[in-house]
Automatic annotation (TrEMBL):
Any GO CC annotation of this UniProt entry: plasma membrane
Record-annotated G-protein coupled receptors family 1 profile domain positions: 35-295
Name of the protein in question: Melanopsin
Example GO molecular function: G protein-coupled receptor activity
Length: 331
């Protein structure tokens, strides 16, 4: 990977490969905007969706929207021009805010996981721990930490540089082993650990609940009772297991490759090609698209509202079509 202060041009690639790279980022930008703006609009326009847990999801969408507007759009233009043309000052700013938005997104995922854990496993304390006021403080603290961790490279602990293989400015590999280690362990590995811990606990709690239900059933009414309450709990258990696997799988696919690459380079274990580095960066960007669907539209409330909105739109289109046909026939 090239890291220079002279902003060397991107490596030569075939026209087809460049077109594919640009269209991939455009795809992420379009669908990321649709998913995240749509989710935020739903919460804003429907009062019954304006609850604490959804505020956390909206916060995640905002961090992803900022990444789309200010990071992916810049990378797309750099891929097209095949060089960094924004100047050194904006490179430092680009590296700083890109890191801020990424960390805010990861910490939002951890906070959403903690919220769901408290809601299900410690339901009685949920309203107290995640009150509106405390949730606002948590979100503010989250952004404060995300901004704080992006400052050190500008004051000597590490530094930002243009990474031609990623078509963006970010932490220059090799600039500081200690800073990169703290960043990866505290702000990438920790959110992942929190997410896994919370969803495993949720899964175990749902499983214990199902077993208690089965245990309370007597032999006489077992056949009639299992098809109701017990099967419902089994369905919840399977759903939680699928959610857990989905979240862990997406996190591993999108974030682990970039972490492995950083540590491989720091330890000088191997030479990572620019192509591999770009793929890892593209996978991180993919989370801007997957997050609103995983954390938002997989939720029954959002999904039901989306269905209602689509049904209304279809009815309006049908009525409009009928009116136009009637007008045409009258003529």
């Amino acid at each position: 990977m090239s890291v220079t202060s002279e902003f060397s041009p991107l490596q030569e690639e075939s026209t087809l490969l460049v077109v594919l790279e640009v269209f991939y980022l455009i795809f992420l930008i379009i669908f990321g905007l649709i998913g995240n703006i749509g989710l935020c609009a739903m919460v804003y326009t429907h009062r019954h969706l304006q609850i604490v847990s959804n505020y956390l999801i909206v916060n995640l969408s905002i961090s992803d929207l900022l990444r789309i507007f200010f990071t992916l759009s810049v990378s797309t233009s750099v891929l097209i021009k095949r060089r960094w043309f924004y100047g050194e000052t904006f490179c430092l700013l680009n590296g700083c805010y890109t890191l801020t938005f990424m960390i805010a997104s990861l910490m939002s995922v951890a906070l959403i996981s903690a919220n769901r854990f408290i809601q299900i496993v410690h339901h009685r304390d949920s309203a107290t721990i995640f009150s509106k006021q405390r949730t606002k403080i948590m979100i503010f603290t989250l952004w404060f930490l995300a901004c704080s961790i992006s400052v050190p490279p500008n004051i000597g602990w590490g530094h930002y540089g243009f990474l031609s293989s990623r078509a963006t400015c970010f932490i220059a590999v090799g600039s500081s082993y200690s800073y990169t280690t703290v960043l990866v362990l505290a702000f990438i590995a920790t959110p992942f650990s929190v997410m896994v811990f919370c969803y495993v606990k949720i899964f175990l709690a749902v499983r214990r609940s199902r077993r208690r239900v089965v245990g309370r059933l007597s032999v006489g009414n077992l056949a009639s009772a299992i098809p109701t309450e017990s099967k419902e709990n089994l369905r919840k258990e399977v759903k939680v297991a699928k959610t857990l696997l989905t979240l862990i799988g997406v996190y591993i696919v999108t974030w682990i490759p970039i972490c492995v690459i950083h540590f491989v380079r720091l330890a000088k274990l191997a030479i990572i090609s620019d192509s591999v580095d770009l793929v890892a960066a593209f996978l991180v960007s993919l989370s801007c698209v997957t997050n609103p669907w995983i954390y938002g539209f997989k939720n029954n409330h959002f999904r039901d509202q989306l269905k209602r909105m689509l049904c209304v739109k279809v009815r309006v289109m049908r009525e409009t079509g009928r009116c136009q046909m009637n007008q045409f026939e009258m003529k």
